[in-house]
Each structure stands twice: as structure tokens, then as C-alpha cells.
Amino acid sequence: MKPTTLAFAIGAVALVLVIIGVAGFMSVRPDTDVPDQASADPGRYENATYGYSFAYPEGHEARAYTPDYVAVGRTTGGSFDSSADVTIVRGDIIESMLAMCAADGPNESMSCTSIRRQDPVETSTGFSGVRYFLNEAVTDTSTGITSVREKGPFFAFDISPNVPESARGYLVIHAPIASGASGTSQLDQNLISGIVDSLRVSRVENGL
Asked: Do 12 and 47 reside in the same domain of the chain?
């Protein structure tokens, strides 16, 4: 084969490889318009008092106000906005959750009256819990009219061995109570689901 012909053939092959490489790259590039919390580099919060930890996505922070109460959210304009609350509750889990969502606002009064539905849930590490949805009664203080809406989900995990001062102890993960029934955005729901899925629980030294 003549040198000029060989050079032309090599150049053609190289061009084809470049085209294939560019096409392959374009076919697998991520959709940057849709936030993907699963692909974000996470941080991890660890609670040594009750022996649990969970992951949260980049751009968020976990604030432990007490060992019993941790909020996960973002800081915007110098103000921290919680998107998920992680709390320790003691005693009867149903009574605790019903009492948890009682609140009074300037125009309405809210209280949870009963469990609407519940189903089992399991973390990626195989730790089992229950997902609850509650019936929330909302009374318009100006008219006195009461309506009932769904509140939740509340994810509850029995960690009684790590809460020795109480017969029963639960780790509950939920949206902030003030978010209302429809106030939890899809991104916040994804955040809560990610916290639940990444939850790890181990026995602490002072456990029963």
C-alpha cells in the first residue's frame, strides 16, 4: 500500500473512533435539569447517644439541637430552614405521634386524631420500621369549620435497647410539623426517604 493511501486509511479510522466516542458520551450524559440527591456527595450525621447515623445530600446540614432532636435542612440568607426532623420519642409510639402534630396557628388549629394507614418499611441495611400516615383535624378559627386531611409520612423505628431510661424508645423521621399536609415538596420527600434508607443503628454501651 502506498504511504499516502495508508495515511488516509489511518486518518479515516481515527475519525470514526472520535465520532463513536462523542456519540457514546452524548448518549450517557446525565440530565442536569433534574436534581438527583442519590448521586450527590453525602455527609453523614452520627448520634453517639442513641447509636444511630444517617446520610444527607450535599448542600444540606444536620443540626443537633439536643441528642433527642436533629434537624436536616439548608441555610439560606443566614436562616436555617429544616426539611426533615429526626426525633427520639418515648412510651407509646401512637400516642407520641398524635401529640407531636398538635399546633395552633394564627388562622387555624391542628391536631392529629388517629392513624389513617400504616405499612412496614426497611432501610438499605435491613433495619425494619413502620411508616405512618395520620388523620389531622384542621379547624379554621374564624369560621369554626373543621376538615380532616392526611398528615405524614412519619417513619418510626424501635430502638428501645438504646434508650435505657424508658421502657420503649423510638426514632421518628418526618417533615417539620408546620409544613402541613401538602407543604412537603418532592425534594423534601426525597430527602426524608434518603435519610430513612441510609439509617444505621448499632447498640450503644449503655443500652439494655
From this structure: no
